[in-house]
Amino acid sequence: MKELIAKIQDAYAAFEADANAQVEKGNKAAGTRARKASLEIEKMMKEFRKASLEASKN
């Protein structure tokens, strides 16, 4: 589960950098990367939820 949390943190850092580039500099390509990262984060968060539920059962 620690690996998953690290992956989520890395993906969020990339998302945050791209989202800021879009907002502050008007970088359209960064906006595309941020949207893609948000989908990846969503998938990882679902995995985390499953892992967390399993861990709480044990």
Give the tags:
mainly alpha; 93% helix; 0% strand
Write structural notes for this entry.
The chain has one domain. The radius of gyration is 14 Å and the shape is elongated. It starts with a helix and ends with a helix. It has helices spanning 2-25, 28-57. It is 93% helix and 0% strand. It has 58 residues and is mostly helical.
Give me a quick take on this structure.
The chain has about 60 residues and is mainly alpha-helical.
Element layout with pairings:
Elements: H1 2-25, H2 28-57
Helix pairs in contact: 1-2
**What is the element string, with H for helices and E for strands?**
HH
Determine the N-to-C terminus distance.
Answer: 14 Å
Number of helical runs? Answer: 2
Q: Compute the average pLDDT.
A: 96
Spans where pLDDT lies below 50 across 5 or more residues? none
* Rg, alpha carbons: 14 Å
Residue share in helix: over 70%
Number of strand elements: 0
Give the overall form.
elongated
Task: Give the percentage of residues in beta strands.
Answer: under 5%
Largest sheet: none
Structural class: mainly alpha
